[in-house]
Each structure stands twice: as structure tokens, then as C-alpha cells.
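At this stage, I put together one protein's amino acid sequence and its C-alpha cells, which the following lines show:
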Amino acid sequence: VLEMGCGLALPSLVGHRRGMDITASDCHPLAARFLRNNLRLNHLAPMKYRHGAWDAPQPAATTAATAHSTTVRERYDLLIGSDLLYDRDASVALAEFIGWHAEPAAEVWIVDPDRGNRPVFSRRMADNGFGLTQQRLDTAATATAPLYKGRLLVYQRAA
């Protein structure tokens, strides 16, 4: 599993605690430090982190010589992220990044707060062979919690 744009890496931390083989990634220069601190604060063993800049030229898949690189090079069958479609150019670059790093048969889960760049991203994902199912997220978790509005976007591609 690859978490893209991990920020503080909460989904990665939860997955790691539950025994998943998960890699956190982000382009922010402090993301790796945030992850190390959160692992320490939550008494968790170290986990994989890779620098993931969507707009950078993407390398080929991992070889023995590149397996320990600090940038994302592997391919994944599940890629996840939240609030990644914040501008049109980022949406296009993200779809290209996913094209490089998704296995031939893969799923991509994106939580999108409806910023308006979903259609461009979805067209690019379709160009990469991904179909889309989506679920509106418009229910509060509890009666006193604030209402979240957005969508869970699930893109699937068969081999």
C-alpha cells in the first residue's frame, strides 16, 4: 500500500499498527520527520517512507540497485490519499504519478472534499485504464460532530 501526500501520515500509522505493509510518501521536506515523530509517540516500529513528488520525472519500477532509494520507485496494488486534488495541475500530475506506480491490477482510494478538480483527474485516470465508483460522504460521524462533505473515489483497473 502507498499513501500519497501523507502529511502527518495518520492512515499509514493506522495501517502500520494493524500489520499492513504500507509506505508513506509526500513531497513536503518535513514529512519524513513528522512520520518518525508520530511513530515514536505511538510506540510503533519504523516503517517505510519515500519522497513522492508528483510533478518530478518518474523512474522505472524498482530494481535491486534502486530498492533502497528515498524516492517512490515501487509499484503498488493499492494507493490511497486524501485531499490531493487541490489544483488542476496537481490533479494531472497525480494521475501520471499513479500511472507510474500502480500495478497493472490496482485500486486507488481518494477522499476528495469536492474542490472541483475531480473531473480532470477522473479523465486522466480513465486514460490510464481505471474505472471509477464513488460514494458521497455527507453524514456526520456522530450527532455532535461537524458534517463532512466530499466523496470517496475508488478507481479500479484490472490486469
